[in-house]
Fold this protein.
Amino acid sequence: MKKFTRNKHQGMENIKLIADSGSTQCDWIVSENDDIIYQTDGINPFYQTADEIFKIISELLSNNNLQHITSVHFYGAGCSFPEKKETVKEALSRCLPEADIEIESDLLAAARGLCGKEPGIACILGTGSNSCFYNGTVIKENIPPLGYILGDEGSGAVIGRIFIGNLLKKQYPDYLYKNFMDYYGTSPQEIMDCVYKKPFPNRYLGQFTKFIAENIKDSCLYDLVFDAFVSFINRNIIHYDYLSYPTYFTGSIAFHFEDILRDACLTHGIWPAGITQSPLMGLMEYHR
């Protein structure tokens, strides 16, 4: 578990634990000591049971002496549906039985963390992708993301899926194929097993964006990421009737490929109002 230092803010009677979770990583922050961001494995009730989520949360709390929390605001991937919210709430209630608990989607986290209480278009580009128009209070419109098989354009999982398919079908130069296999110490058979037989194939595919980022000067990889972002814009953002409002992006893919994202946005006359790795600090301000 990692900790990162941020600006310090001390002390509130209501001790809030705020979480922003994707499928790969969950970031946590406590209102009484917001100079520390805790990181755990991602939490997604589409892929995990209440028991599995309980284990992640209980280890976080016990390892960092956080049992004094009085309220929790948990925002997560897979938390758009009532039954999935209940899965996460069950796990949190077992860990913090006296706390007030709010479970909302990672998309609302992006909207609140990026836009605050002003209207705007909020977009997530991480392991998965999503977008919405937020009126400053609630999400008014949302193009369904559909997951990494049917949708999730511009996400790490989809970029990784397209990349590995092209790589194994010899669509890229031989040196890229060799460098990739050496970099990960893997083989086509192991890749197939991880994608089709093991859990969290979206996480597995998303990890390949690290190799892509380190080799982004290769034109075929730049074009891959650029085209993925254009696809996200075409299939998501331009369908909103609110393009006069600011458009924001958050997530690891948006952050690490910021220059390419800006290039893709310019093809549609969109100027991002902000690109962040995480909405967590914005959420802390929202919940003050």
